[in-house]
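To assess whether the prediction recovers the assembly geometry, we first specified each molecular entity separately, as shown.
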Amino acid sequence: MNEQVENFNIYRSRMNEKIMGADNIVLKRLFNLDTNAYSKGSLDTTTKEMLGLACSMVLRCDDCVKYHLQKCKELGVNKEQIFEVFAIANIIGGTIVIPHLRRAVEFWEALDE
Amino acid sequence: MNEQVENFNIYRSRMNEKIMGADNIVLKRLFNLDTNAYSKGSLDTTTKEMLGLACSMVLRCDDCVKYHLQKCKELGVNKEQIFEVFAIANIIGGTIVIPHLRRAVEFWEALDE
Amino acid sequence: MNEQVENFNIYRSRMNEKIMGADNIVLKRLFNLDTNAYSKGSLDTTTKEMLGLACSMVLRCDDCVKYHLQKCKELGVNKEQIFEVFAIANIIGGTIVIPHLRRAVEFWEALDE
Amino acid sequence: MNEQVENFNIYRSRMNEKIMGADNIVLKRLFNLDTNAYSKGSLDTTTKEMLGLACSMVLRCDDCVKYHLQKCKELGVNKEQIFEVFAIANIIGGTIVIPHLRRAVEFWEALDE
Amino acid sequence: MNEQVENFNIYRSRMNEKIMGADNIVLKRLFNLDTNAYSKGSLDTTTKEMLGLACSMVLRCDDCVKYHLQKCKELGVNKEQIFEVFAIANIIGGTIVIPHLRRAVEFWEALDE
Amino acid sequence: MNEQVENFNIYRSRMNEKIMGADNIVLKRLFNLDTNAYSKGSLDTTTKEMLGLACSMVLRCDDCVKYHLQKCKELGVNKEQIFEVFAIANIIGGTIVIPHLRRAVEFWEALDE
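The predicted structure of the complete assembly is given in tokenized form:
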């Protein structure tokens, strides 16, 4: 696995464990709910992950973008489709999103290694 | 057509015309590009409109939410699916999105009349 | 009760019922979690409501501000304290928050009627 | 004076007085500082008001946009220039800014009456 | 002192000095006002620092979160209380806040070293 | 050229090429439009770059701030003027902007080397 991807996942897991360990009931349930929101329902998981990706991009959260890019890759979303999600996010969110687009493209390529 | 929906569309069209009439080339092209972004590509138009809806909701833009709700309705997205989009947007964006969810639900119902 | 306050509460309740009625499990749990987050823990409810108020103000959500103002009033927060919360929110969020401050002050007075 | 413009100014003045009347030292100084920031320095007041307008637009604050539009009009900024400010704000902030652009154009016209 | 905490404080002080050195009267007064806003008034400093922390978190400013965490630690806020502030900020701001929560938890632990 | 400035420009160019290479028509046109928006019109390029700088700062995008600082420097904007733009952005956007101000000041100095 690419180093950037690996470091991202390791840090994410390590800190999530600490957060769960703090035993705050509201945060625990929010994490749980987060998982539920993306599980298959009337919409399939691929659509839901693309929704998560687009929202993360317009809200300009690099880590959230990376997380959903990884999920999309696992679910078989291809490059052309990912760039159409990027295009919508950049039109809606404006050029302020472009620096996040750059980092997203870098991470997307890292996922291929 | 429901009065709220009609007024929304009339105001939107009227002001868009004024904006186009001002003849600013950058704004004209941005409006054009906005239309292009949602046309069928590797992703179908329904997926794209749902992406637009979710992004509009996390960015808390009532008018943008209304616009994409109308498009989703025209494309046959059903209530259960719309609420799954709402759920993802509210989990990502937090409870600060709830007042916009209320107005979205009201508009969604108005679209049925 | 003041008319502005009453209309706010009626609309809020009516739309919340519709949202609950749609039976989306993620949204239902999020609403539930929202209630839990403000219940007494290591921090008392008054502190928590002031946190909710300040966050709502910097995120510039008028309806959220109104909701927490009402809660603060019920819990006995006085005008001087409320204005200190306002001051922090306006320093952190900048002058872009001022229009929301104006509407908050109007609603705070309406709660007295 | 146009009714929309007049109501805007009356409400703004009335609420500002109430805020000043609450005698919170931090808010009072912030209001003061706000005035200072736009006074002539190395940059002229027209440039500063256009900066205020563009920032208000990307932050999507209708009232702030209206305030700076009024100032720009008083300082002699013309329609073509205003639309170039709008164009930059909409490119940077994306299509999410468009509903605010519509209301800005409406208010700009109201200022002419 | 932990290295992360020390580097954070050194950079912060060094750049603040440069900003003050530029002698812009508006920025100088804003920095001053920032200090005033958190001094004891009708609300105690601990409550005010928690307000600052929650607002910084929903606005997703890592450096601001770190600054207020340090202040809260100095004032004796304990881990359980801090996590209740985190919980409210994450419920209001949504899962988009979680990456900032991870970094906040890391910094909170660093403050203990 | 200073190392920070050089790395910034190299990464920016490299990722822009990749984005162009993906051949998404919407993103390509958006990049194009971005360039057009800042070209001379009724407003001169210096004013437009200062508008871009102020908007980038209130939206808290470090990379966007750096880009426009570089452009402003090339166009001859001096330190006092830059700090007046900073002052307006920090008053409008609040103290949440200060960490971005620190990084902006650091980059502005790097441009002098």
